[in-house]
Specification:
Order of helices and strands: HHHHEHEEHH
Number of domains: 2
Oligomer: single chain
Strand content: 5-15%
Structural class: mainly alpha
CATH topology of the largest domain: Rossmann fold
Number of strands: 3
Distance between the termini: 45 Å
CATH superfamily of the largest domain: NAD(P)-binding Rossmann-like Domain
Length: about 180
């Protein structure tokens, strides 16, 4: 998302720079400068509103080059954002958060090692509601399972556990952990 923001900022800089450049070099009003900047940046190529001086032509060449570089950067960034899975990850993360927030009377599996994986698979097979919390979901094959509710986080962090259930469940989990020690 950061790269897309940079692309938009670069585009604005090119347009504002073009407007100010034509207004300064040619002494044109801002409306004429905007018009020529837009037809230059978009490569439409209508006629110039007024004849350009040699400095104006050189500025136009520089504007075209910077526009092409900015457009190339912005387009490749947008394509990588779309096809690189960032949009899908963002949408999937929202779907996951919504599904987790609707869980009631569910189990929280802390960690997805060998035991956590087996428990998750048994729970899923039995239809028991649960969510897995692990610091590195990508390191587990269950983290790639689109039907598994999985949250990236620290299982020892109270805020993370509260987000997955309720404070009563957290207290029960802590009581259970104390009994095992």
């Amino acid at each position: 998302m950061f790269n897309i923001t940079i692309g938009v900022i670069l585009l604005l800089v090119v347009v504002v720079g073009g407007i100010l450049g034509y207004a300064t070099i040619e002494g044109w009003p801002l409306s004429d400068s905007l018009y020529l900047t837009v037809i230059t940046v978009t490569t439409v190529g209508y006629m110039e509103v007024q004849p350009l001086s040699s400095q104006g032509r050189n500025f136009t060449i520089a504007l075209i080059v910077f526009s092409a570089v900015t457009a190339g950067y912005s387009i490749t960034t947008l394509i990588s954002f779309i096809f690189g899975g960032q949009i899908l990850q963002a949408v999937w993360g929202r779907i996951m958060d919504r599904a987790i927030s609707h869980l009631r009377d569910h189990y929280i599996i802390c960690g997805c090692g060998v035991v956590g994986k087996e428990v998750a698979l048994e729970f899923r097979h039995a239809g028991v509601p649960f969510v897995v919390i692990d610091q590195d979901p990508s390191g587990s094959e269950l983290g790639q399972d689109e039907y598994m509710l999985f949250l990236e986080g620290n299982a020892e962090d109270d805020d993370t556990l509260i987000a997955l259930g309720s404070e009563e469940q957290l207290q029960s989990l802590k009581d259970f952990a104390r009994q095992k020690v």
